[in-house]
Amino acid sequence: MFEHIERVPGDAILGLIEAFKKDTNPQKVDLGVGVYRDSNGNTPVMRAVKEAEARLLNNETTKTYIGSHGAPAYSDVVLPMVLGADSPVLNAKRASATQSPGGTGALRLAADFIASQLPGKGIWVSDPTWPNHHGIFTSAGIELHKYPYVDPDNRLDFSGMLAALKKIPEGDVVVLHACCHNPTGFDLSQEQWQEVLDVLRERKLLPLIDFAYQGFGEGLDEDAYGVRLLAEKLDEVIITSSCSKNFGIYCERTGCLITVAKDTEQMESVRSQVAIVARENYSNPPAHGGAIVSEILGDAELTAIWREELTEMRDRINTLRRDFVEALKPYGLDQKYACVAEQRGMFSYTGLTPEQVDRLRDEFGIYMVRSGRANVAGFSHENLPYLAKAIAAVND
């Protein structure tokens, strides 16, 4: 029966990994894979995570299922982290959390919930957006559309975005990146979030906020500004949260779907439907990652250690952004790539063309996605001079 099945091209990022491994250039640089790396090029296990796991190992008493919504202890710590400890949304019991296999799993839950409970509604994503958004939503049978986000000069096109949002049919779903926009690194200001809120309210649009990088932009609370604003000012909001990045537990697949409804009664109805969606997808989420997060956020000492480590990671990335632009100054390219220092999060839309990206790979062993998206965490003070020289060469 498999004779008719055709082979398709593999994932572009996975292909970069294989090509990078085979490259014999001693100065090769990997700017493709979207994980945090330290100055040695490693993705470390955070100290708070190691301590939490040691405690879990000693205290764990069962490996039983944790239920379709996940462990209550996980929801109890994630909801305040995302919505704020003193959130009026939480005080009004308007929000529900469903533990998921990573942020990707939360997005799939959201997609299936929208497809089953809001049939016929289209979904709008930024152009560009995380490529997997396209696959997740279309595979759920939702009609996908785009709104502008970056202009031809590689700048945030907020006016174009706002104009497009004002034309979206009432009741459709709009996917917004809470912070550290993937792949561009361009984020909305607080004033721009206010304008987006006004349009969402006027057009009766449902926001789906992808919150994958809390703490990697400006800070845990600062990065949550747009999320909390919309959750507090609108009756209905969907949020997909990930702990993979800010806790460094990528392989544990730890995420959360948060739904905000007008009141507790409506929230309970939504929650009941989300449980069915989770049950039909994977039955129960994996427990270990959520237990790590719960252990850390439930202990003041571990929380302090984790916050310190997260600050170190964020500061390192933001410093590397500025140092990258500074390294290009001798070549007269600092203004051309000044946007890299203005962006936030692990990713940068550099403005490099596909042809320039190809040259960087073939001539210098520098690997990134052909869109010009680079993982800034792959920069280091050791490789910045080499990167700058190579980028100057392909800009001739």
Biggest sheet, open or closed, and with what strands and sense? 7 strands, mixed
**How many β strands by DSSP?**
11
How many helices? 16
How confident overall, as mean pLDDT?
Answer: 96
**Structural class, please?**
alpha/beta
Distance between the termini: 53 Å
What oligomerization state is this entry in? single chain
Helix content: 40-55%
Q: What topology, given as strand order, has the largest sheet?
A: 2-8-7-6-5-3-4
- The rounded Rg comes to 21 Å
Structure description:
Residues 27-391 form the Aminotransferase class I/classII large domain. GO terms for molecular function: transaminase activity. Belongs to the class-I pyridoxal-phosphate-dependent aminotransferase family. Helix 2 packs across helix 12 (288-297) and helix 5 packs across helix 11 (264-281). The chain is globular. Helix 6 (131-139) links the parallel strand 3 and strand 4 (144-148). The strands form 3 sheets. A 7-stranded mixed beta sheet has the order 2-8-7-6-5-3-4, with helices on both faces. The chain has a two-stranded parallel sheet with strand order 1-10. By secondary structure, the chain is an alpha/beta fold. It contains 16 helices and 11 strands.
Question: What does the secondary structure layout of this molecule look like, with pairings?
Answer:
Blueprint: H1 12-22, E1 29-30, H2 47-59, H3 72-83, H4 88-91, E2 95-101, H5 102-117, E3 123-127, H6 131-139, E4 144-148, H7 158-165, E5 173-177, H8 190-203, E6 206-211, H9 220-223, H10 225-233, E7 237-242, E8 254-260, H11 264-281, H12 288-297, H13 300-327, H14 339-342, E9 347-349, H15 354-364, E10 366-367, E11 373-375, H16 384-394
Parallel strand pairs: 1-10, 3-4, 3-5, 5-6, 6-7
Antiparallel strand pairs: 2-8, 7-8, 9-11
